[in-house]
Amino acid sequence: MKRPIVKYGDPVLRAKGKRIAHVDERIRALASDMLETMHGANGVGLAAQQVGEALQLTVLDVSAVEDRPSTLKLNGEEVDPATAMPLILLNPELTLGEEIVSGTEGCLSFPEINAEIDRALSVVARAETLGGEQVEIEASGLLARALQHEVDHLNGILFTDRMSSVAKASLGSRLKRLQKETQGR
Ligand SMILES: [Zn+2]
């Protein structure tokens, strides 16, 4: 079932996600709904906060994006990122690589807003799967960027927080309008 995507201005986007200690039917249903919601919106990632749940749960799928490549190692083994998608990650923790790259980012909670954001080129993520297994993900390219964006969401951090002050100022009135629309609902 698709769920409505929470937009900028809703306080749940600022909430730090609670660790998921136990996977039950509710968590499985939430993950499944998040996948459907992300795919329906043509997104590459979605965090639980974006459907109104402050939990450490995110889904990702970069397989539809052809012009921005990714690399992926799953538990130390190189795999084709497309075949490993979608990813459903619980309680993820990131270690960032040192090299920084700038790249265009959008967010489903900020319709039609894009900005150049500096991110680590590569990351290592340790997370749990729905089945309770530990997984280690080494990623670069778009997947590394998406992981950083989503793990930020899980900690109540938004991509606007990562924008240069110039970029943020130039989007100021659009951000205010979006916030007002969301809060007026
Ligand atoms: Zn986002």
What does the model show?
- This protein is α+β, with helices and mostly antiparallel strands.
- It is 28% helix and 32% strand.
- The strands form two sheets. A seven-stranded antiparallel sheet has the order 1-2-5-8-9-3-4. It has a two-stranded antiparallel ribbon with strand order 6-7.
- Strand 3 (70-74) and strand 4 (77-79) form a beta hairpin.
- The radius of gyration is 16 Å and the shape is globular.
- It starts with 24 loop residues before the first helix and ends with a helix.
- The relative contact order is 0.20.
- The mean pLDDT is 96.
- The chain binds zinc ion.
Structure in a nutshell:
The chain has 185 residues and is α+β, with helices and mostly antiparallel strands. 28% of the residues lie in helices and 32% in strands.
